[in-house]
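The instructor's notes for this session suggest beginning with a concrete chain rather than abstract definitions. Hand out the sequence below and ask the class to guess, before any prediction is shown, which regions might be ordered.
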Amino acid sequence: MTQHSTPSASVIDTGSRKPKTYRRSMDGWYHRLPWYRAYLVREATCFVVIAYALLLLVGLWRLGQGREAFDAWRQALASPLALVWHLVVLAGFGYHAWTWFEVMPKTLPFVKVGGQRLTDGAIIRLGATAAALASLVLLGIVWGLLS
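After discussion, reveal the predicted structure:
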């Protein structure tokens, strides 16, 4: 028969002692550098994108309910408050898009034109210009279809 005994005092119990490690406080971490604040604002713009996507989904749902429901939804979007909301959304989308253009030089492989590497500023300007031109073309197509 095996006898169970309690451990002797000479056995070291390493499970009860945790090593003391340095832990920096995270209080106010976003105040330390301006880059952190810009990061938080950029990430917060995703909520504007989500809210607008939900607004458009409501429009699709109202369209499925019939012409009267859809017209009521469109009429609600013509109110002064909705117009202010659209300006806020436009500003949020613009900032969100611009920050992604600023990330482009960091994510693209080196782009060479004429044997020389494009500067970060040139890449940002080219990306923003391409997006603006594509938006204008799309706006022209939609405007042509509506008239």
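Then share the key points. The CA atoms of residues 5 and 11 lie 13 Å apart. The longest helix spans residues 34-65.
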